[in-house]
Amino acid sequence: MTDAPPTTGLHHVTNICTDIEETAAFYEDVLGWHTVKRTQNYDDPGTPHYYFSSTPEGEPGTNVTYFEYPNSQGTPGPGASHHFAFGVKDEATLREWREHLEAHDVRVSEVKDRTYFKSVYFTDPDGLVFELATRGPGVTRDEDEPGGEVIDPFEAGYEN
């Protein structure tokens, strides 16, 4: 155990997009989130910085923010995020999300059993990988052989 001071959990995640309006439309129209703040990147004035939240209030822990850099297409690697996951209540809700995403012309993976939860994967307009994951059965469920399963979100023909 460390003597580090406690944290309250994840506050927000900040990503980079190439078109802030396209990203806003994705969050609002496809994911049903709320644009709760439009400002600028204080470290790079003039660069748009939008805050999207799963709730209208935008309280910490519900926000994903974006900086817009139109010419910034990159390659994932060390120092970059592979994907991030949003939680859903259960497998029935996960399947509803899958149908919803398909109805909005978003390519989405089949439901995948990840031992600790079930999930689907899709990408935003810039190719950032998202995951929707159920709460259970939870991380206390052990694999038969820990680390024995390779978990690849792009398996079974899912392409970016």
Automatic annotation (TrEMBL):
<feature type="domain" description="VOC">
    <location>
        <begin position="9"/>
        <end position="135"/>
    </location>
</feature>
<protein>
    <submittedName>
        <fullName>Glyoxalase</fullName>
    </submittedName>
</protein>
<dbReference type="InterPro" id="IPR052537">
    <property type="entry name" value="Extradiol_RC_dioxygenase"/>
</dbReference>
<dbReference type="Pfam" id="PF00903">
    <property type="entry name" value="Glyoxalase"/>
</dbReference>
<dbReference type="InterPro" id="IPR029068">
    <property type="entry name" value="Glyas_Bleomycin-R_OHBP_Dase"/>
</dbReference>
<feature type="region of interest" description="Disordered">
    <location>
        <begin position="138"/>
        <end position="160"/>
    </location>
</feature>
<dbReference type="InterPro" id="IPR004360">
    <property type="entry name" value="Glyas_Fos-R_dOase_dom"/>
</dbReference>
<dbReference type="InterPro" id="IPR037523">
    <property type="entry name" value="VOC_core"/>
</dbReference>
